[in-house]
Design brief:
The structure is a single chain. The chain is mainly alpha-helical and about 400 residues long. It has 17 helices and no strands. Helix 1 (about 5-40) packs antiparallel against helix 6 (about 125-140), helix 8 (about 170-180) packs across helix 9 and helix 10 packs across helix 17 (about 390-410). The longest helix has about 35 residues, at about 5-40.
Amino acid sequence: MFRLNPKLIAILLFCGAIAGVAGMSLIGLLHFIQQLVYGIVRTDGITFRNIVEQTTAIHRLLALSACGVIVGAGWYLLHRFAPKLVDIREAIGNNATPIPLVSTFFHGMLQIFTVGMGSPLGRETAPREISSAIADFIGRRFNISTEERKVLLACSAAAGLSAVFDVPLAGALFALETLLFSFQRNTVIAALICCTTAAWVGRIGLGSQPAYQLPAITLNSPLLIWSLLLGPLIVAFSWLLQYQLACCKPAVRTSPKLIFISIGAFILIGVLSIQLPEILGNGKAGNELLFNDQISWHYALALLIGKWLALLLATRAGAYGGFITPSMMLGGLIALLAATAWNSMLPPVPIVAAVVTGATVFLAVQQKMPLTAILFLLEITNITPDMIMPICLCLLTALSCQQGLNKKQS
């Protein structure tokens, strides 16, 4: 059984602080790159969506073309000449597999540079990976046990997420639900120590405002019925995306051909961004429109297709990044289209509530973290706990369908 001791508590506090500094620094670098690439100073109230929309179509195309060069050349050189990258789950499962610090650092920096330039993937994986690599380095220097290392790596990775999004509770739950698969008391305490410290430190540079300010949400009975019916639809889209992403992943990452594939793929993303600038970046631009009911179903359909294709193209190019915010954007777009179709024939459901439900459940299904997804949305928005009911009803049918689909595939 895992036990806490003063030495490990001190290491958890230290690694949590490091994760907070890493998250704060990487997001600051991301904002700097956005300003540098798109030529617009980011001030209070100016978001990446505003920055991109104020640039010309040609500017966006050139920025994405340059991004393709960095993606192709950067990850080709990293895979070709640097020590092999180690996934956090692989490191947790095998004590003999250390996380290479230098390779992981450059891997994370490439993610921040490319997302800042417009790559459609998420920004949260870089601080998670860098934080866990530093924690692994520290843990080995202090000769901690195998079980202690497992907990430290999971908590540090989750702390990176906590720092970037200011979600101490969701970060701790992420470590427990998706990395450790354990809710043993001492493990819960360790996750809370590390993730709360990271979020607290991250607030120094990133502030403590919710990522999304939503209008007042009204709930009604039709929304509950609609939520039950949305679950299977969410699972179908999630399964399709996972299948297509698996098909698009490069089989060989050490071939120089991938550089030219990457350039071509990001040029196509740049072409898509001429009419759909919100597909660029991690997906927050689309979520801002969705959560404030500022988008028509016609444009939502175009954004869904555009963001979907952009994710597939970036994956085929060999780019890395997170899928938390992109998943939320896709889920919100699917939900908006489904709610619009429902409202044309049946008693209407509130659009913003429908979008929040779809974004949460798609994130839960896509990332296999139902509990974390609910708490994550509560922490990054100003929604009230009333929204938990439609989300849980949607999850009820979604997870049942997902379980049935997994049994059929196995």
